[in-house]
TrEMBL record:
Extent of the signal sequence: none
Cited NCBIfam families: sigma70-ECF
Keyword Electron transport: no
SUPFAM superfamilies: Sigma2 domain of RNA polymerase sigma factors, Sigma3 and sigma4 domains of RNA polymerase sigma factors
Domain (RNA polymerase sigma-70 region) ranges: 26-93
Organism of derivation: Actinomadura violacea
Domain of life: Bacteria
Pfam families in the cross-refs: Sigma70_r2, Sigma70_r4_2
Identification of the protein by name: Sigma-70 family RNA polymerase sigma factor
Amino acid sequence: MAFDERTEELAVKAAQGDQAALNELLRKIEPDVLRHAARFLPCRQDAEEACQDALLQVARNIHRFEGRSRFSTWLHVVVANSARSTYRSLKRRSVEQAGELPQQRPDPRRTSVIAGSRVDILDAMEDLEARKPDLIQALVLRDVSQLEYAEIAEQLKLPLGTVKSRIHEARKQVRQTLGDSYT
């Protein structure tokens, strides 16, 4: 998500309490937020849920945006966290409902390979977050949000070398979790 200067200005004004700027900002960023959430979640309805959650988080927490980095960088973190939170919630609901419904496995002939691999990657990322939470943010910002290393270092307030090291280690951990089929 790279925004023009007008979007960045709206974010600064919204962070200073300008309600009209916040409303315009939310309208303007919604398509990009949805597209970004869809990178995480294979089902459109799930991506829409994550998008709405992310927009709500922006509205509630825009005052925390200090303007030291670009708004788009700050927003990447918000969207990634919302998408991962939505995924965890969906997974929890699925486990709860499994007790009520007969166990059904999806038919592999009707399951998208891409959707299936995204779910596998989300599971691997969730596992990594549980085991080594300091690695997950850098990985998400680089491999999902596709930010530059310098932007990640700025956002996480870490030295560039630490960011590169965390991303390398996170990728290694995710590869181990996924197994040979993803190398």
